Amino acid sequence: MKMKRPTGFLTATFKPIILVVIGLCFIYMIKINSDFKTCGTRRIHDVDPDRAKRAQKYVEKVLQAECRPSFAKNKMNKLFMNKYSMDVTPFINKDISAQPSLFKYDPPFGFHKFSEKLQNLLQLLPEYNLPEDLQSKHCKRCVVVGNGRILHGLKLGSVLNNFDIVIRLNSAPVQGYTDDVGNKTTIRMTYPEGAPFSQDEYYPNGLFVAVLFKTADFHWIEAMVKNETLPLWMQLFFWKQVAAKIPVTAKQFRILNPIIVKETAVDILQYPEPQPKFWGWSKDLPTIGVTAVVLATHLCDEVSLAGFGYDLSQPDTPLHYYDSFCMAAMNGQTMHNVTTETVILQKLIKEGAVRDLSGGIYCDFCEKTGYN
């Protein structure tokens, strides 16, 4: 006669494993948060007024010049021949069956084993492109506004507002910083943990572009679209607290095409081909910032960036324009290789594919004799 195991056998077997996993997640979150030491008590130097004025004039000159259709794409294609895709769709649409390359890699580089979850999510989203007024525009200019401290004091806000598309990253605030960063937000690009908590950071016509990394991210997006509350147990799968509700309608949501993440990592940064990992990430994962720059080249004819550039040689200086976290935090993180990204961004700027409006990566306006 076949012996029947007690009903509590599986629970007794897996309970210790579950507790260990939760414990590791908790330790990981503590480690991440401890890396971000504050530099609030340190003296912050004022920006040279002459440098701020030259930066403002440089941006004005960029905007006054005639917009060049397809300029960024053609430059990228030339720099990364046979690697940069000229016709990739920036956002995922419902026709995923015709795109087998979407399912080659695990998130965030693809949707391997996530076909059903993706399809269910896409059924909730009615739109997949830019708003019609932007989509039909003959020549579009993008600016990707980074979160770097270099924006502090440059007073670029009013000129940044004049770009056709303004892309902001993660939870970087606008309220209280408009003089330096402007108040126009066309796209907020982030993942669940990076979504702003303040409802004031969402705009009626702005797009929320989601980068999906894990199963829980699909559930979070679905809950936000349906205006539902994410189950408490599901919140354990995020490395920090996520917003419970955000004021974004279904037609404002977009899902970033993961091929752009793969293109950024493998074809542009020349990282190894993505491999599945049981725990954590190596430094083969591009930042949201550099991924947004590549996305911008697919969306717009001309691309600029502002607020980029980490000076890792100054570990005790503030990291962001909106808080007092130390630059040293970037040396402690294990997900991104910001040195490699800086080299690539310098290449893009020096070759003229994109422009650096704040001069943190490569400064075209720092010489008083001209504004190249």
UniProtKB/TrEMBL annotation:
The chain crosses the membrane at residues 12-30. GO terms for cellular component: Golgi membrane. It catalyses: ganglioside GA1 (d18:1(4E)/18:0) + CMP-N-acetyl-beta-neuraminate = ganglioside GM1 (d18:1(4E)/18:0) + CMP + H(+); ganglioside GA2 (d18:1(4E)/18:0) + CMP-N-acetyl-beta-neuraminate = ganglioside GM2 (d18:1(4E)/18:0) + CMP + H(+); a beta-D-Gal-(1<->1')-ceramide + CMP-N-acetyl-beta-neuraminate = N-acetyl-alpha-neuraminosyl-(2->3)-beta-D-galactosyl-(1<->1')-ceramide + CMP + H(+); a beta-D-Gal-(1->4)-beta-D-Glc-(1<->1)-Cer(d18:1(4E)) + CMP-N-acetyl-beta-neuraminate = a ganglioside GM3 (d18:1(4E)) + CMP + H(+). Gene3D superfamilies: Glycosyl transferase family 29. GO terms for biological process: lipid metabolic process. Keywords: Disulfide bond, Glycoprotein, Glycosyltransferase, Golgi apparatus, Lipid metabolism, Membrane, Signal-anchor, Transferase, Transmembrane, Transmembrane helix. Belongs to the glycosyltransferase 29 family. It is found in: Golgi apparatus membrane. Coiled coil: none annotated. It is a single-pass type II membrane protein. The keyword Signal does not apply. This is Lactosylceramide alpha-2,3-sialyltransferase. The keyword 4Fe-4S does not apply. Disulfide bonds join C142-C300. Transfers the sialyl group (N-acetyl-alpha-neuraminyl or NeuAc) from CMP-NeuAc to the non-reducing terminal galactose (Gal) of glycosphingolipids forming gangliosides (important molecules involved in the regulation of multiple cellular processes, including cell proliferation and differentiation, apoptosis, embryogenesis, development, and oncogenesis). InterPro entries: Glyco_trans_29, Glycosyltransferase_29, GT29-like_sf, Sialyl_trans. Its EC number is 2.4.3.9. GO terms for molecular function: lactosylceramide alpha-2,3-sialyltransferase activity.
